[in-house]
Amino acid sequence: MPRNAAAGKREEQMEQAATDIEAMIREEKRLTAVESHCEAWAETVSAGIEPEIIAEAALATALAELVRSRGEDAALTLLDKMRDRTRAGEFEPFLHVH
């Protein structure tokens, strides 16, 4: 393998490794967020607050923060993504996977 080709291959492998690490970090952050939200959900349910009220408050807070930090388009994109996931049945109780 010519020297430039070998260097290119190493660079490509390093980029893939960095992408893999970034994906693992993102997934760990997501799981931490899910755990925190599940704990908060359980706490508010045990305080007697109805799930619909909790859900609406959580969604409104999340969207407001996303609009503030990333803009309205990011919030609308997230809503579209969540609508698609809901229609695909991803949130059905028997498929409950975070």
Main traits of this protein?
98 residues; mainly alpha; 82% helix
What does this molecule look like?
There is one protein chain. The chain is 82% helix and 0% strand. The mean pLDDT is 89. The protein starts with a helix and ends in an 11-residue tail after the last helix. The protein contains three helices and no strands. Helix 2 packs across helix 3.
Structural class category: mainly alpha
Number of DSSP helices?
A: 3
How helix-rich are the residues, as a percent range?
Answer: over 70%
Q: Output mean pLDDT.
A: 89
Straight-line N-to-C gap: 44 Å
Largest sheet: none
* Coarse shape: elongated
Number of strands: 0
Low confidence ranges:
none
Radius of gyration: 20 Å
Give the helices and strands as they follow along the chain. HHH
- Fraction in beta strands: under 5%
What's this entry about, in short?
The chain is mostly helical. The protein is built from three helices and no strands.
List strands and helices in order, with pairings.
Elements: H1 3-46, H2 51-70, H3 72-87
